[in-house]
Specification:
Blueprint (H helix, E strand, L loop, with lengths): L2 E5 L3 H14 L3 E4 L11 H9 L2 E5 L5 H13 L3 E6 L13 E3 L6 H16 L26 H4 L5 H35 L1 H7 L6 H48 L9 H25 L1 H10 L1 H36 L1
């Protein structure tokens, strides 16, 4: 049975929309808000985000835990369905391709219809015929399939909104990349600091207890930087869902607009996309080169396993972020060269 994880703080959305649709499509439903592990992004939730067949996210109100979860899911490259109550998706999230529904509970019929079709498409299922939402059997003459409000189709952002959203997210992403680089530099500094101690501990005749003491001190010294690196990588991944939505919307506008009609700032913003991607690539490459050493130090002492796993996990997160960013950078280069 396919599995569906739902992200969202509102019980009404779970019970009025997601649960009935999952039952119709025979999906096993997991609610993120009912997981027992504390914290907005605990290990248990991360595992579900990486493993479940599809994730449904309610963007209504822009709850921070939903944004964090989306970042992890995006880094994993797995199927995601985004929904939000019309008019309540905050700036920053409104550039994402979310299905919009009227306020609940009155809008539950339309919300279910949208979710039913999206899940069937994502999972390759035959969409079940929509039941009479008022409890009747079949689709009588009085049953009408809800249509998305026409106003929603005309409420898309204009060029300036797209440009500002892309610029804002890129600037925020630059701050997250800087935190990743700073944490990695701290790790390198700790390595240099302990180099002489390691050399002395490995001189002929040095007892194993001396070597172990040095290794354990080194493990203690990199606990903080490895925690900071992990947190910075997660923040970057969480932001990427927002960043990519804003970037793609902006790049698609540029692609569909004659070059002669581009405003002056477009060229600079295309350069920014390419440069930001390069910075993420450099950060990921530095960690990737550190990979073979991670395997070795993880086997050296049990105290080093925790930090080495966090560093390795941060590398996987950065590589997951890099792939979709590279697509945006390639599109930006193609637009510059067209």
């Amino acid at each position: 049975m396919p599995t569906c994880l739902v992200l969202g703080p509102e019980a009404l959305f779970h019970e009025e929309v997601v649960r009935p649709v999952c039952e119709e499509l025979q999906l096993s439903l997991i609610r993120a808000d009912q997981l027992t592990e504390p914290g907005p992004l605990g290990e248990q939730l991360v595992r579900h985000l990486l493993e479940e067949d599809v994730v449904v996210a309610d963007l209504t109100g822009g709850h921070p835990s939903v944004a964090l979860g989306l970042g992890v899911r995006h880094a994993a490259g797995r199927s995601t369905v985004l929904l939000g109550q019309a008019g309540t998706v905050p700036a920053g999230l409104d550039a994402l391709p979310a299905l919009q529904f009227p306020p609940l509970p009155d809008g539950r019929a339309e919300a279910r219809a949208l979710l039913r079709a999206a899940l069937a498409e994502e999972l390759g299922l035959a969409a079940a015929p929509a039941p009479d939402e008022e409890g009747g059997e079949g689709g009588g003459a009085g049953h009408e399939v809800a249509e998305p409000p026409a106003a929603l189709e005309e409420s898309g952002p204009g060029l300036l909104e797209l440009a500002v959203a892309a610029e804002t997210e890129m600037e925020a992403m630059a701050e997250d990349v800087a935190l990743v680089e700073a944490a990695f530099q701290d790790l390198g500094a700790m390595g240099e600091l302990f180099t002489e101690d390691v050399v002395r501990a490995n001189l002929p005749g040095a007892p194993m207890s001396t070597r172990l003491a040095v290794v354990n001190r080194f493990a203690k010294s990199i606990e903080g930087p490895s925690d900071e690196l992990e947190a910075a990588a997660w923040r970057l991944a969480a932001r990427m869902e927002l960043t990519l939505g804003a970037l793609r919307a902006f790049l698609e506008w540029v692609r569909d607009t004659p070059r002669s009609e581009w405003p002056d700032f477009v060229e600079a913003q295309l350069d920014q996309v390419i440069e930001q991607t390069r910075e993420v690539r450099v950060a990921a490459t530095c960690l990737e080169e550190f990979g073979p050493m991670l395997v070795f130090i993880g086997r050296t002492s049990s105290r080093l396993r925790g930090p080495s796993r966090k560093i390795a996990g941060s590398l996987r997160t950065l590589l997951g972020v890099l792939s979709p960013l590279e697509e945006c950078a390639r599109m930006a280069r193609a637009l510059q060269e067209a």
